[in-house]
Amino acid sequence: MTSYYKYYLEIKNRILLTIFTWISLLLICYLFKEPLLFIFINSNKYYLNTTPYFIFTDVGEIFYVYLSLVFFIANQITIIMLFYHSLMFLALGLYRLEYLQLRSVFKIFIFVWVCSLILLKEFVIPFSWSFFLSFHKTEEILQPTSFFFEARISEYMIYFKNLYYICLINCQGFAILTFLLNNMSNTIGTIKTFRKLFYFLFILFSTFVTPPDIISQVLMSCSLIIMYELLIFFKYLIR
């Protein structure tokens, strides 16, 4: 009973630390809400040489945007801290090799998360924003009707969050796929046996995480399949 009580105390303390971290992040992010919002907006290269311009149609819309931004940042960092506390709690009950493997997985998760942020800020948002806005920049002869775009700040936040989750899921999916293939059996025949199953999972995964158009699904599926075949080829070279 004493050992179980110690586990209970440790779990309670780690939960309290996680809650305290979450509340502290909320307060800190709210104090710096204007710079954080500017960082999110400034990631869009469309406003690189001009002042960012957004509209709002409700009196409390800006306040709700700030709250949404604060909770979004606090929740993302708290999830990472929750994974860290889970790793520390399980560390004492694991063998050294198991602990090292779990720690490596956690480091890979953090590295891929940072890479997904860089990819989102430097490539995904600027490219997607320029692509969608390019439809109203056609010649007047071909398009006699004029379009004028005014972005709402709340809709831009939703747009940013959707791209963030899509980019994060895709990057983590690539990392998980690489990890699983590297830890499979050394025999090439075992990997080739599950080729059709992996192809089906790639198509299913692409259907859920990409926008509802066939081009995005095909590109994502082909990327996963090419990566899968390259990993098989590298395993063959290693042997």
Structural features, described:
Helices cover 77% and strands 0% of the residues. The chain is an all-alpha fold and 239 residues long. It has a domain at 2-156. GO terms for molecular function: proton motive force dependent protein transmembrane transporter activity. One of its GO terms (biological process) is protein transport by the Tat complex. Keywords: Membrane, Mitochondrion, Transmembrane, Transmembrane helix. Pfam families: TatC. InterPro entries: TatC.
Short description:
With 239 residues, the protein is mainly alpha-helical. The protein has eight helices and no strands.
How far is the N terminus from the C terminus? 51 Å
The radius of gyration computed from the alpha-carbon positions, rounded to a whole number of angstroms, is 23 Å
Overall form: flat
**Could you describe the largest sheet, including whether it forms a barrel?**
none
Helix-and-strand structural type: mainly alpha
Low-confidence stretches: none
Residue-averaged pLDDT:
78
The portion of residues assigned to helices is over 70%
What is the chain-wise order of helices and strands?
Answer: HHHHHHHH
- Number of helical segments with 4 or more residues: 8
Strand-residue fraction? under 5%
Number of DSSP-assigned strands: 0
InterPro entries: TatC
Membrane topology: Multi-pass membrane protein
Subcellular location: Membrane
GO biological process, one term: intracellular protein transmembrane transport
